[in-house]
Amino acid sequence: MHSGRYVDVNPSIIDGWQYRGLLLGLIWLMVPPVVMAQESQTLSYSQKEFRYQYYQVLLRQVLDVTETEFGKIELKAYDAGNSEITEARGMALLHQKRIQITFVPTTEKREKSFRAVPFPLDQGLLGLRLLLIKAENQQRFDLLRNETEFREKMQGGFNTNWSDYDTYLHNGFKVVPATKYETLFKMLESGRFDYFSRGLIEIWSELDNFKNQYSDLRIENRFAFYYDIPVYFFVHKDDELLAQRLELGLKRLEATGAFSRLFLSYYGEKIDRAKLDQRQIITLVSPQSQTKIPHTRPFWWPNNLPFKATQNPSNSQL
To answer: Which of 54, 128, 231, 286 has the fewest C-beta atoms lying within 10 Å of its C-beta?
Structure first.
């Protein structure tokens, strides 16, 4: 006889081992669904490439420090084969709920379409850009006298799928567009443009990763760009519980100092290596500057280096 989810069983018609097996199965069915869900949760993300390792490790720590309240959860990179998932495709996968989280630069449009967790994961460091160039072209950069000459004489290459592509156009820089990440390295080495702007957080690992393929590339030693492009965790608008978990975890890591320790373990040496106090830093106006993105001095900014979050394009002397 059946009564809801329960079944009446007469143990006299089956042997002891069969009865125990059936009983264990019934107990499993009676486990509350929320507990079962906590034990089998999987969180899929879109960025599995080597240059995103910091964000992956940070996400793991955020989930670990909130496990007591929200349960255990496993991380899994979305399987796209050998192809890289662009930012646009990653946001589409999130919209379709084929992944549950992504970590990308924020924009006003993204904050309207998805649930942003407004904590700058990279502390503004992605917006500090060094320039990849061909080694033979350093002298051309040394001869530039002001920002106007930089804009007039130099062309940069950039991916049109990246959210900060418009920042360079907005500030009057000449940009050669491309749609694939690795294509830009090939184009730079073949002389299609003069520089490829890369985040300080990624430029050395990229040089090391591609040194055999593009051995003529180096980091330009005089200039750097800086603009506002904070990276946030984004989840689906329906996934408020996950957003709350991420916010809680980030606050806990920040309060204990674990966040800054992780950040500096990945990027502290790179910040020192960039020798920012010896560079001319060109601060760009981000098209996102009119949104709620904060313009504050990052904790890692060198004490002996003036900080200015935004400025209008000018003819200021370098």
So the answer is: 54
